[in-house]
Fold each of these.
Amino acid sequence: MKKTIAILWLIQLFLSSSLSWGFGSNIDGAVKRSLIIPGPPSSRAEFISSLVAASSLVLFPLGSNAFDGGVGGLGKTRPQTGVVFRDEEAAASTTQSSSGDVTYELLAPDGSPAVVSFNAPWPLLLTASGIESRDISGGIESAFVQVAELQKGSEIKPAQLQEAIFNSKGKFGMYGSPTDIRIKKIQAGSKEGPAIYLATFTTLTPAMRESDRKAYISASIVGNGLFLLVTSTTAVRFTKLESSLRRVAESFLVVDAPKTNLRNQK
């Protein structure tokens, strides 16, 4: 019994140090209080209860820092979206309008500046990986911007969209590359609007379960930049939300930016 009590005190010392270093910032007050050991336990039941509470926190921490990855923000690493802001300071202070409008100035891979805008019913997320509007209540519906390089004069092909969006380093590839990918063009692009494609695919969730999804891919070109807006949800919810998702996809607009003297202009 004395040896076990000594182990319990060592666990308490470790947890106290962890809390002082900030590792236990998510531990609630009730659990913290249960770990305070003022003296020898008055009963065997009390002793065992304290030991279980302390050891469970060591083996199964209650909280951890979240990563900015994957659709819904739950990824093991930061996804590569290709987004480069023309002025990072201005981008950091950009907000979404009350009607859902989002506007940014971005750079194509060759440095050509572009004004990118769209309208979405979900809140704009302040992430380090790019531009994303997401339904934070469930995290199922989202619209995010992807930028890829395209040779000037080249036509957009489904294979290029697949490579840009569905690779293992993108938002849908955080837990493995998507499978069963099918992309078809459903609207031609024009000066007034983007080309729109419909994609169906299967991706893995954080629990490593397969999830069938559908996405509208809006595509426009400025310089050698292929600017994409990917608006997606699960295949099950797509039929019900198809019209609202299509409105988001059609709202995507990319135009040459004015030749201003912003800091990051090339």
Note: The CA atoms of residues 175 and 207 lie 9 Å apart.
Amino acid sequence: MNAADFSTNRHSSNVHMTIHMASKHTDLYFNDGNIILLAGMSYFLVHQGLLARHSEVLDELMRSMDDTPTLEDHALTYNRSFVTYDSEGFPTLSGLLRMLTKYKVHHLRNDILRGLSNYWPTTLTQWDTREASVTGQDGTYTPRDSLPHPIEIINLAREIDYLPLLPSAMYDLTRSTPSEAAIGFVSPFTGMNIRLEYADLLTVLKGREQASRFFSTFIVNNLEGRQPSRWCLMTCQIAFEAITFELLRDINGIISNRTSDPLYAMTEAEQMQIRDDLLNSEVSPMKTCEHCRVEFGAVVDAAKEDFWKKLPKWFDIDVSPWG
């Protein structure tokens, strides 16, 4: 419905009939309001000035209206308690974001995007927090049980033109196999198969290759043949060789459901150095002395930061600020 539809009385009879059948909203009905919004079988008496202040589009529509104070089918109501960022709440959240974007309700749109960005962030610190929140006590990684699928996030980001969501969502998807990324997934709520646009699929696959090359280079430069610290208190070179072998096998990634995840693997390379051998109850062959561990930890931190900063470039997305 365009602005011209609101500038005539051609809806007036239907609107008045519907209002008599509709029920008054229990909360959003102000006695001093000066405009009625009708949505479904509920109507809202609200303040025209506030609507105009918060939405450029509604301001334009209301300016073009005649003396019939009714704006049909466009009720912009929002309660934070009804918005959740999990997979179950995503259909509601995405629909709300599309509407807020269409009607340029910037403050509400930005409010929701800030919450969504906690799970699809622009900083490595936020990403690590997000990953920890979807990892069980046994180390099993199950983001699909709680978070929306990254394909949904990518498609939504394109639709509402909010690029900061894309790099982390695309990186998330690169951790699936190429065939899984291409096939898409079936929504448990709608039963529909959801896929990426072809251009985005190619971008994800190219970014996946870049991430894989980065991790391979990390192993070659920082683990293969790594010399122990000059203050080494043990035979840590053997431990580094064992860690290299373990990373190449990617057993931990398979067990925890996090294969093809360079950020996780680089963190694991550090964590392996402090774990005991739980199977044999012996000292792990990958344990290192404190000096070697601290020096290698600094290398891992720098590599992860470098990796994260490269994500927008790998996925050909111009995002600023990032990282």
Note: Strands lie at 23-29, 35-39, 42-46, 70-72, 185-186, 193-194.
Amino acid sequence: MPSNLQTKDLFASGNLPASSNVPNTPDPFKDQWQKGTWSVEVKQPQLQISRAYTPLPTAEQTNTSGTIKLLVRKEQNGEVSSYLHQLPVGGQVELRGPNTEFVLPDEVTDVIFLAGGTGIAPALQVIHSLLERRNLQAPPNIRIVWANRRREDCRSLAEQTQASPTVTDAKFESQDIVSGLDELKRKFPDNFNVEYYVDEEGTYLDQKRISQMTKSRPSIRMGPIATRIDSRLLFVCGPEGFINFLAGPKKWEGGKEVQGQLGGIIGKMGLRDWKVWKL
């Protein structure tokens, strides 16, 4: 059964700086990649609605034309995701943004990112910003936990070929992201690690596992230790049910979606030295 987790490569033209359409000009999203997590809104023109999507970093992120890559899960009743998946190659898309979601401080020492499904996209932005974009004297330790319902949504190239050697879905293969994560582990062996949890295999995120993550300390650092509350960041990102279960629901206030009270499993843990942020 083919996965419903797919990507679309979108050329962001229209509301980017005019110079971005000229070859060899600077990446118009350079500042956003540096800051932390960010998104763009994609418009469905027939229904006049939009949804926010998180751009994926490319291998070297040397964009000079404003091209961005989005991870889009095609939902059965998703107006915007269905619209994107039926667009032809070369089709034009209306974008609004970029919108900054979270600015990562330079003083961060530890990051735990609990990602469900497409929530892996901002996790990749965090890694890209802290380990690849910034020249930090003491790079942070980053731990990504990627939870999916099915193994095929987080399967490596070798696993995918072994399981379905005839699969040729050009839109997306889960190994695109898994291979990128494997490469990051090779590139930053002392600062990055990733774990996979799969519902159909009976591996779930629970209070015990999260507690072990937050209490474990990586290798001892040389030099001063940051004591600010935002030096240790715990992110939760994914479908609404995933966020609600782990950290409680976000809420609407003044026409905007805000963090809301910390609840769920993490809210019961009484974490005092971690800043929890729902994306």
Note: The mean pLDDT is 80.
